[in-house]
Write a structure and sequence with these properties.
mainly alpha; DNA-binding transcription factor activity; single chain; elongated; DNA-binding; Helix Hairpins; DNA binding; 118 residues
Length: 118
């Protein structure tokens, strides 16, 4: 995984885990890599991976079975979609609208590009 400098690594790890779940690579009640294994796979300190897992637990995306490890929560996809949608609407969309206004791009142009991507 290539980390970007503009975001904390543990935040990027939470996004990595969320993407795995949204893509169906990790499903509900499936055991996920241990903190140590994830840290090794991503070449980060296990404490950094644990920080990401702590955040994901607080958001009810994963849960810990003591002695067994971490698992994907039953409603993980729903929780992730809610979190990601809120972030997109609150942060990304306003930046997007600002950029298209500055560049003089019309909604019709955007729609045309969108239709080509489908």
């Amino acid at each position: 995984m290539q980390f970007k400098s503009e975001k904390a690594i543990y935040i990027q790890i939470t996004e990595f885990v969320m993407e795995k779940i949204l893509k169906g690579e990790w499903s509900a009640d499936q055991k996920i890599p241990s903190v140590r294994d994830l840290g090794g796979e991503l070449e980060v300190n296990p404490n950094t991976a644990m920080r990401a897992y702590d955040i994901l637990q607080q958001q009810d995306i994963i849960y810990n079975k003591r002695g067994l490890g971490f698992f994907v929560s039953k409603d993980a996809k729903k929780s992730i979609t809610s979190v990601k949608k809120k972030q997109f609407i609150d942060v990304d969309l306003p930046q997007f609208f600002n950029t298209i206004e500055l560049l003089g791009i019309s909604i019709e142009e955007i729609n045309s590009y969108y239709q080509k991507q489908k």
